[in-house]
């Protein structure tokens, strides 16, 4: 291979590496810039002096966040949401994917249930009926309103079903010959084998629950019950209230506390950044196994 | 061979999920009735006045409806095209990299924005494109006057499409990379022996090799023609750019929940759901026919 490389090939390589490097920097820069702003002096940040690194490095913004009880409360609600939502979805995904991965001949009714799942995934009632239903269950302002509507992640279930279908069919038969029941097979044989795909859907689930903001805004009447993203959305984004003029929009960008907002954004990013490296090695494998079929 | 106990246990496993699915996906479907009612929250779904298709005719008479529909289609189609092409080019370039450590490093970084929320990214993007933001400062160096990107109906749709591509191109690359690893390496050796350089190998081996994947992704994305991205637009737009970026979903939210016009908002949402479902049906049929694709 090495011998066939010509000079033109080498210059092509240089261009490719250069281009990929630029793309990489432009992906990372906006995030890095926000981190730099959050560690800068607030007047330097407002004056637009921050470019690559913090100007007059200080932790003032983070001190302010630490003393903000509401921010801390919202953070805890988000953690609660992620833990509850992800563990419920994990159990349900596994419980549904295992029987539904069987052939219809082995598990009568499987196809009908499958179509019901897909129909529920593809056709939704729309925002208003969905909101009214949750309201009618008396769930507004409760953590369950943020967790239970998403407890059955049909897309993830299909990924796991496809993964299970890729496993050798002899697993079940060997287990049955040895006298294992359906529950034993699921928990002792399939669950350990499903680690890559379950890690993938768990990552999706964690990220989904951590990032959701809109349901918090509409289903929680009291801002004290907002999860973190809803809280940050209200403070950082929602300054563009209905009657802004062009001039006001200009001055707002100067007035708003850039460093504090940046620090809030950074703190909100951190949990995803922490779990990302652990699960990243699984998800590429998990996605391609579940979705690309011969 | 398989006894009844197994099947009973299978059904037992499905029960919790099915109950939740019925509660939160199936039951809300009855609420679609609101689209055909002059809905009164005090009376509820069952006793509100039935008005037939009034909400739908009213919807088509609204001067906004045409603009909103066109905005939705325009933004969604632009995003679909960009999100097919940019990841493809990126995957092809990444595939040429022989240093595995570098390749993995690049991948790790470009996947990352996919996992961050639009609340966070909108905060960052809005700040960067603000009047005194880093983008205006950068172009100021070359003598350009600062632009109010976020208040400009000319610039704002481009920023929406661009930032969406920025967030997703890395993640969308995964599927192309998976397809690229599926190409038989002996094809490259044969091409090299026949005297094909890297460009010719790309053209005659790589592209034909991933053509099915490209066709599949293009077909399936048809189902998203009415999804222009609520989370992003909701977090980035403002009243000054409604005329270029208000989409069906943001409109339903404003008219429905903020202005409490439940009937109209439900009608708009229902129409969107029905058309989307038809499009998904068409795209899935095409995908299974031409690319031999099955969901399960």
Describe the structure.
The complex is a heterodimer of chains A (294) and B (296). By secondary structure, chain A is mostly helical. Chain A has a single domain, classed as MetI-like (MetI-like fold), CATH 1.10.3720.10. Chain A is built from 15 helices and no strands. In chain A, helix 3 packs across helix 15, helix 8 packs parallel to helix 15 and helix 13 (228-237) crosses helix 15 (258-291). The two termini of chain A are 30 Å apart. The model of chain A is unreliable at 1-5 and 290-294 (pLDDT under 50). Chain B is an all-alpha fold and 296 residues long. Chain B has a single domain, classed as MetI-like fold (Orthogonal Bundle), CATH 1.10.3720. Helix content of chain B is 71%, strand content 1%. Chain B contains 14 helices and 2 strands; from the N terminus they run αβαβαααααααααααα. Chain B has a two-stranded antiparallel ribbon with strand order 1-2. In chain B, helix 4 (63-95) packs antiparallel against helix 10 (198-221). At the A-B interface, helix 1, helix 4, helix 5, helix 6 and helix 8 of A face helix 1, helix 4, helix 5, helix 6 and helix 8 of B.
Task: Provide a compact summary of the structure.
Chain B: This is Sugar ABC transporter permease. By secondary structure, chain A is mainly alpha-helical.
Task: Give a topology summary.
The complex is a heterodimer of chains A (294) and B (296).
Chain A lengths: L6 H32 L3 H5 L13 H7 L2 H32 L9 H13 L4 H10 L7 H4 L6 H12 L4 H8 L4 H12 L1 H17 L2 H6 L8 H10 L8 H10 L2 H34 L3
Helix pairs in contact in A: 1-15, 3-15, 4-8, 4-11, 4-13, 8-11, 8-15, 11-15, 13-15
Chain B lengths: L3 H23 L10 E2 L5 H4 L1 E2 L3 H8 L1 H33 L4 H12 L6 H11 L5 H8 L14 H26 L3 H9 L4 H24 L8 H7 L5 H4 L2 H11 L3 H29 L6
Antiparallel strand pairs in B: 1-2
Helix pairs in contact in B: 3-14, 4-8, 4-10, 5-8, 6-11, 8-10, 9-10, 10-14, 13-14
Q: For the terminal residues of chain B, how far apart are their CA atoms?
A: 25 Å
Determine the structural class of chain B based on helices, strands and strand pairing.
mainly alpha
- CATH C-level of chain A: Mainly Alpha
| Biggest sheet layout of chain B | 2 strands, antiparallel
**Mean pLDDT over the residues of chain B:** 90
- The counted number of beta strands of chain B is 2
Q: What is the CATH superfamily label of chain A?
A: MetI-like
Number of helices of chain A: 15
């Amino acid at each position: 291979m090495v011998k066939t490389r010509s000079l033109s090939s080498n210059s092509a390589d240089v261009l490719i590496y250069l281009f990929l490097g630029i793309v990489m920097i432009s992906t990372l820069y906006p995030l890095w810039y926000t981190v730099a702003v959050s560690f800068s002096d607030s007047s330097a940040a407002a004056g637009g002096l921050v470019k690559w690194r913090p100007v007059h490095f200080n932790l003032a913004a983070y001190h302010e966040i630490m003393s903000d009880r509401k921010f801390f409360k919202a953070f805890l609600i988000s953690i609660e949401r992620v833990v509850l939502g992800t563990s419920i979805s994990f159990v349900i995904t596994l419980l549904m994917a295992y029987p539904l991965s069987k052939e219809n001949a082995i598990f009568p009714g499987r196809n009908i249930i499958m179509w019901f799942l897909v129909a529920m995934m593809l056709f939704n009632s729309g925002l208003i009926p969905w909101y009214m239903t949750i309201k009618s269950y008396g769930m507004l302002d409760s953590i369950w309103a943020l967790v239970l509507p998403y407890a059955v992640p049909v897309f993830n279930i299909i990924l796991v079903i496809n993964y299970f279908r890729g496993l050798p069919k002899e697993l079940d038969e060997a287990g049955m010959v040895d006298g294992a029941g359906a529950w034993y097979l699921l928990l002792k044989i399939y669950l350990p084998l499903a680690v890559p795909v379950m890690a993938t859907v768990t990552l999706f689930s964690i990220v989904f629950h951590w990032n959701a903001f809109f349901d918090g805004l509409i289903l929680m009447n009291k801002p004290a019950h907002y999860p973190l993203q809803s809280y940050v959305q209200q403070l950082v984004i929602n300054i563009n209230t209905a009657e802004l003029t062009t001039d006001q929009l200009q001055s707002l960008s100067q007035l708003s506390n850039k460093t504090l907002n940046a620090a809030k954004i950074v703190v909100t990013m951190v949990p995803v950044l922490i779990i990302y490296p652990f699960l990243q090695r699984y998800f590429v494998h998990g996605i391609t196994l579940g979705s690309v079929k011969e | 061979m398989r006894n009844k106990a197994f099947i009973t246990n299978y059904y037992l496993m499905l029960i919790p999920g099915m109950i939740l699915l019925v509660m939160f996906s199936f039951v809300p479907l009855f609420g679609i009735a609101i689209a055909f009612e002059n809905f009164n929250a005090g009376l509820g779904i069952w006793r509100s006045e039935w008005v037939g298709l009034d909400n739908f005719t009213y919807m088509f008479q609204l001067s906004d409806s045409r603009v909103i529909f066109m905005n939705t289609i325009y933004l969604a189609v632009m995003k679909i095209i960009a999100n097919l092409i940019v990841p493809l080019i990126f995957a092809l370039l990444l595939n040429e990299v022989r240093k595995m450590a570098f390749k993995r490093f690049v991948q790790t970084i470009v996947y990352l924005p996919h996992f961050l929320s639009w609340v966070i990214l909108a905060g960052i993007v809005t700040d960067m494109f603000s009047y005194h933001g880093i983008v205006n400062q950068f172009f100021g160096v070359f003598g350009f006057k600062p632009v109010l990107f976020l208040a400009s109906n000319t610039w704002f749709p481009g920023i929406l499409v661009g930032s969406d591509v920025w967030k997703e191109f890395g993640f969308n690359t995964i599927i192309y990379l998976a397809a690229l690893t599926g190409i038989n390496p002996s094809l490259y050796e044969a091409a090299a022996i026949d005297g094909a350089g890297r460009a010719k190998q790309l053209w005659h081996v790589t592209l034909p090799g991933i053509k099915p994947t490209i066709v599949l992704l293009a077909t399936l994305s048809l189902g998203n023609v009415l999804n222009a991205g609520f989370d992003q637009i909701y977090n980035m737009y403002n009243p000054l750019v409604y005329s270029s970026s208000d989409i069906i979903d943001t409109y339903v939210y404003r008219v429905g929940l903020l202005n409490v016009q439940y009937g109209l908002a439900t009608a708009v949402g229902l129409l969107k759901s029905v058309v989307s479902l038809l499009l998904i049906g068409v795209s899935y049929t095409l995908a299974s026919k031409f690319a031999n694709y099955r969901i399960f």
